[in-house]
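Record GTPase Era, 319 aa.
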Amino acid sequence: MTDTPAPHDDEPQGSPDAPREPTRCGFVALIGAPNAGKSTLINALVGAKVSIVSRKVQTTRALVRGIALQGAAQIIVVDTPGIFAPKRRLDRAMVTSAWGGAGDADAVALLVDARKGVDEEVEAILAKLGELKRPKLLILNKIDMIDRTRLLGLAQDINARHPFKETYMISALKGDGVDKVRESLGAMMAPGPWLYPEDQISDAPLRILAAEITREKLFERLHDELPYESTVETDQWKVMKDGSARVEQTIFVARESQRKIVLGKGGQTIRAIGEMSRKDIAEAAEVKVHLFLFVKVRENWADDPERYREMGLEFPRGG
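=>
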């Protein structure tokens, strides 16, 4: 007797002769205050790294789209920059991008750090949510870090301020409750063809994802020493004869003193950042990677429209 292989979880199930479940597809905007855990959640939903994670606030700058599968549904999750009170030009561009992503989506999921509860940033988001005529989910994250009684009270409080279609309680870092969120989002997607191939997990080109990975490692290593305005660009992605990739990237900082911090004594810091980044880029690209990092000073890069276009942001006029 020959065993029949079980169908993959990410494929519409049934025998070859049975009608396949109609495909569904749509966009979900994941919004919230900085450091609510949006990037961690999108990576958990997709099952792979598609958005950088850092304890430094406001590291997600542009709209990052991760592609998750749930049965016959393809869920395109848009990881938006954290919504906060903007003070600088880059801040304004990020917040505009976040609300724009929410307005264009088929559904909106508000992620709230349960430990912080309803602070000024969450209050500001809730006040504006009514303008979005989309189905909305409330997701309370980091539930393993607070008392259950307080958690239930928080859920009631937020739903009293704005009616959500459903409320979920999760730990994105541990994966607890993430499957339930994915199932709910899959059910909300409208009938229609998938927009991406089954094995694609993000719409970000490898060059951009590679730059984001290096930026993540930069912040991991130098969290308290480097302003978040620092940026990374992939200058070259060259496929070699043996199939490996030669990747050249430049880390741009605002001052010479920051360049010295990134380099470290005898180049130790930049080597450590490069090694961590190379491993993650190779995993994402599924090829061997030779990574070369350079550090340059570029003052006032946050006032350069070209830099915004490279990040997929609209350049705000005015100071």
